[in-house]
Each structure stands twice: as structure tokens, then as C-alpha cells.
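Need the bound structure for zinc ion, inputs here:
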Amino acid sequence: MKEKFKKDDHEMPSECPYCFYENDACTNADIKDGARVPIEGSLSMCIRCGQFSIYNEKLDLQRLTDDDKAAIDAKTRAFMDKLHLAWTMSAKPTMDAKYGKPFTEGPR
Ligand SMILES: [Zn+2]
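Answer from helper R.:
Posting the output first, comments after.
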């Protein structure tokens, strides 16, 4: 389990395009050149506000467009819903207690 979540795989700061929280890490979304890193089109969920965003060609996060949302397959959408539920039950209360409610909580 520990091997699966090595810190080296997570160090990629990014700013949430919804609440502007500075996330200091990312999940092991995709594999490029043997490294688990986000690539253009990888999805990300903000630990602060729970919104999903997408990496652009510069590997900056941007809000999901309606076209982006429409392109998400049912299996991925189901996983996103489970992930968001897990976030709601675990990280959200901690983040809200620490920082207060985020100033944006638009539709995911
Ligand atoms: Zn956010």
C-alpha cells in the first residue's frame, strides 16, 4: 500500500479554478514516460471544494466545460461520484472546519 502512494508521485502543485485553493499535490491519474503524472485531459478533484477540473495542454487546471462533461464516460462518471461522496464524508468537514466554507461551490 505504501509503495502505491509514494510522495514522488504526488508532487505537482496546482490551483483550483473554482475556489483558487493551492493544492500541493495531485493523484496518480495517468502514466507518461513511466511516471504517474497528470497529462492533458486528466481530471482532478480539488481537496478544498470538491469540484472536478481538467488539465489543459500547459498542465494548468481549468473548469470543466459542458463539452468536457459530456465526454466523460459512464464508468468514469460513476467513479467521480464515488470519489466526491468520499470527499464529502471525509475531507470536506476537515477543510470546512479549518478554512470555513469555500466561496464557490458550483455544480460539478
Ligand atoms: Zn477548489
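Comments: Residues 6-98 form one domain. The longest strand covers residues 52-55.
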